[in-house]
Amino acid sequence: MGEDMMGRVAGKVALVTGGGSGLGRADCEALAREGATVIVTDVALDAAQRLAGELGGGAVAFSLDVASEQAWIDVLREIEERFGRLDILVNNAGVVAMADVEESSLEQFRWVNAVMSEGVFLGCKHAIPLMNKRDGGSIINMSSTGALLGYPVYLAYSAAKGAVRSMTKSVAVMCQEKGYKIRCNSVHPGAIETPMVQLAEGRPGEAQAIPEGVLPHGAKGAPKDVANMVLFLASDESRYVTGAEFVVDNGLTVRPW
């Protein structure tokens, strides 16, 4: 098969956290479509297994609580035994608690940050050695416009996503300084039509159709809009890109009003 006929991530092994639904599902679909062997991980194992079955191409599913260090160690050991490599890590798993700084309990704050701040830390920490055993790779950390703007009711979520933004840059520089062939970037979506957004807007399970083409200000994006960015960062097309933040928000953060 000619190079121009191969997928953009053909031959690569990709692990996606929170892959059973929402943005994670779209990421898995995009990576599998372009030739990657996808490891779908989620705390909801049934959803991950269903998606892996739909993807084909050697996709597998694992249960993974990203807040558990031992869970990361076990899953990565299994990946090494089965595939011998890891080329792409998408730290996507996320949760949200709606409360401002006065209303949030310490338990809520710790729970949200355990999943999205500590979970990203653990993923990077334990995936890097496996990536280094072969050809390096690409780490894509899912942050948010919540790391760039002030959203009072999403205090804990924004704090965690801010940590993801900063950690990404630290990991990117460390990999360069140590001579690792590993890039690390963050993606910052705005309002995307996912189950999490549906829940936050009080319409759980009620999906809204997102039209094709350029969208007007204030419109929600589709999960594929984020997945297309993830795919670019996962591929060798982005070889000169590391430590950067990619805002996918239809211009929200650049508007002066």
From TrEMBL:
The keyword Cytoplasm does not apply. It comes from the Bacteria. Pfam families: adh_short_C2 (PF13561). The keyword Coiled coil does not apply. GO terms for molecular function: oxidoreductase activity. InterPro entries: NAD(P)-bd_dom_sf (IPR036291), Sc_DH/Rdtase_CS (IPR020904), SDR_DHRS6-like (IPR051122), SDR_fam (IPR002347). Keywords: Oxidoreductase. Belongs to the short-chain dehydrogenases/reductases (SDR) family. This is Short-chain dehydrogenase.
